[in-house]
């Protein structure tokens, strides 16, 4: 008996069959690795081999864990950590005796983001540990960056063929330690709660290029708890207007997925990603429409690794645009649904204090909204939260606990760099330290485009400064003067005093844009603190922590 899950990993489908020829197990936080595993699974079964698919966690808890050959597909999360549904598997393989998996053929596909210091670390950790346990690495693992589909597509086909050609493992996976792994897990890390928007307020003022909104959520169920530094996942649905655009094309029909027949409208609203286009959509269309030359031209870019060309073409288009512009609106709805990714939840840093804010959860949300080519686009979360703020209807959320992004002891100085909506967790830190009367000093670096329109939480920070909680507030508004001025310039300007704070045990936190801001801020701290080695040493001590996206 083997476990196969549906695309969302939510409904394990248990099938009666002997041990599968290949078992594909994924660790995935936001659905990318899961999607990839699902695609590889679909392509692998074509040759008559039996291939099982499950999350690492589901497999660990299944009744029959027979393995013949193993392919692990995993992302890395929260600065070098396992995705939640890989954590117990990781605990388990760490608890096994040397040689426990001797001779088992395996390969690991890792996805991550090379902007992080711990690029693909979870995949490397699993790969290294399987090797230590005696498993046989049939194919060198591969590291895939944010455009993972390019690298993964090239790697997966020959890798699966090599794995299937390897002699199967005939022993049973050891059962020891599974319960220990379970005991260590938090148990409720996946629990979803119902929340409502109880208040909202525009933070960007008229004239701003941005649309930042402060939301306050009340969580209906008891038992929801969080700590400063945590984030929250909001399980959004797609905007009704967008769903209607799809219905106008595909009709108000019923569709059958995983043996259940439901209205297409329902599936479009809640289950599939309609906003964010992924390159795998092109690979899927190429399979469905082998004679379509426009699709073939783009699929060729995917195969040859021309990521710039493909990304340029995809830029600004949503999924419906892609189907329209590639003349694929006549593909049957069920086939289109099969090549869409599961609807992604949206994660936000919590901006409130569990002590000072009556159990409410505050979010600082950057809106996405624009018009192009006669269509209006709005980010799924932007319209979702706005609608919920108007009608008060409940929706699901899940706590995402921070690993290192935590306040130190109450008397330790804290340096926070959070321009734009990166300020959210620092508002939480400051409100928390204020509420509990922590004595440690607090220094915030904040910046954005214009002071007049973009100074988020200006009054609150002024108040926290007056009360003495906010010891220093350094501001960098980039477009208020001829020369651009950023938080890293403010950091350099205060080099001497920052060195003192760090010498006195201070912690540094950076939150926000990972592409430009975080590397520039890293450079500035390395320059003022004595080079990269000094920053690395702080990282090792957990005193230089980033939450960047
Ligand atoms: C909060 C956060 C932390 C992350 N940390 C890392 C990291 O330390 N190393 C890395 O390679 N990728 C990191 N990533 C990038 C993810 O691995 C990448 O987005 C991946 O595609 C997610 O796959 P998933 O949806 O299957 O979880 C991080 C992403 C987020 C949102």
UniProtKB/TrEMBL annotation:
Keywords: Amino-acid biosynthesis, Cysteine biosynthesis, FAD, Flavoprotein, FMN, NADP, Oxidoreductase. One of its GO terms (molecular function) is FMN binding. It holds the Pfam family NAD_binding_1. Its cofactor is FAD; FMN. It is an enzyme of class 1 (oxidoreductase). Transmembrane segments: none annotated. It comes from the Bacteria. This is Sulfite reductase (NADPH) flavoprotein alpha-component. It comes from Microbacterium thalassium.
């Amino acid at each position: 008996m083997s476990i196969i899950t549906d695309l969302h990993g939510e409904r394990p489908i248990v099938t009666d069959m002997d041990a599968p020829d290949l078992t594909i197990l994924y660790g995935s936080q936001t659905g990318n690795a899961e999607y990839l595993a699902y695609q590889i699974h679909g392509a692998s079964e074509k040759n008559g081999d039996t291939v099982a698919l499950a999350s690492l966690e589901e497999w660990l808890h299944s009744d029959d864990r027979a393995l013949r050959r193993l392919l692990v597909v995993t992302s890395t999360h929260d600065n070098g950590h396992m995705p939640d549904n890989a954590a117990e598997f990781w605990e388990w393989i760490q608890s096994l005796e040397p040689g426990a998996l001797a001779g088992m053929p395996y390969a690991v596909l890792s996805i991550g983001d090379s902007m992080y210091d711990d690029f693909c670390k979870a995949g490397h950790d699993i790969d290294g540990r399987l090797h230590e346990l005696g498993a046989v690495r049939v194919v060198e693992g591969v590291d895939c960056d944010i455009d993972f589909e390019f690298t993964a597509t090239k790697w997966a086909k020959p890798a699966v063929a090599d794995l299937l050609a390897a002699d199967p493992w005939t022993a049973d996976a050891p059962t020891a330690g599974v319960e220990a792994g379970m005991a260590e897990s938090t148990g409720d890390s996946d629990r979803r709660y119902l929340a409502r928007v109880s208040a909202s307020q525009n933070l960007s003022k008229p004239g701003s290029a941005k649309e930042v909104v402060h939301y306050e959520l009340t969580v209906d169920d008891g038992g929801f708890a969080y700590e400063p530094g945590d984030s929250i996942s909001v399980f959004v649905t797609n905007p009704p207007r967008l769903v209607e655009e799809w219905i106008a094309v595909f009709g108000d029909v019923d569709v059958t997925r995983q043996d259940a027949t439901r209205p297409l409208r329902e599936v479009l609203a809640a289950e599939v990603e309609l906003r964010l286009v992924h390159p795998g959509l092109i690979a899927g269309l190429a399979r469905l429409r082998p004679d379509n030359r426009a699709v073939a031209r783009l699929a060729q870019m995917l195969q040859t690794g021309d990521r710039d060309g493909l990304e340029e073409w995809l830029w600004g288009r949503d999924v419906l645009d892609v189907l329209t512009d590639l003349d694929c609106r006549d593909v049957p709805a069920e086939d289109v649904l099969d090549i869409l990714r599961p609807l992604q939840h949206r994660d936000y840093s919590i901006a409130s204090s569990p002590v000072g804010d009556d159990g409410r959860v505050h979010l600082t949300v950057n809106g996405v909204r624009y018009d192009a080519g006669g269509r209006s686009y709005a980010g799924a979360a932007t319209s979702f939260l706005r609608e919920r703020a108007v009608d008060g209807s409940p929706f699901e959320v899940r706590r995402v606990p921070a690993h290192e992004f935590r306040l130190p002891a109450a008397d330790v100085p804290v340096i926070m760099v959070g321009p734009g909506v990166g300020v959210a967790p620092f508002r939480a830190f400051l409100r928390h330290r204020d509420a509990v009367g922590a004595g440690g000093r607090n220094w915030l670096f904040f910046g954005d485009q214009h002071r007049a329109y973009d100074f988020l939480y200006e009054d609150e920070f002024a108040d926290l400064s007056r009360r003495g909680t906010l010891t220093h507030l350094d501001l960098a508004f980039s477009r208020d003067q001829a020369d651009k001025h950023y938080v890293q310039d403010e950091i350099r300007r205060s080099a001497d005093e920052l060195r003192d704070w760090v010498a006195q045990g201070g912690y540094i936190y950076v939150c926000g844009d990972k592409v430009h801001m975080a590397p520039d801020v890293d450079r500035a701290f390395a320059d003022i603190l004595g080079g990269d080695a000094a920053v690395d040493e702080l990282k090792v001590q957990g005193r230089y922590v980033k939450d960047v996206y």
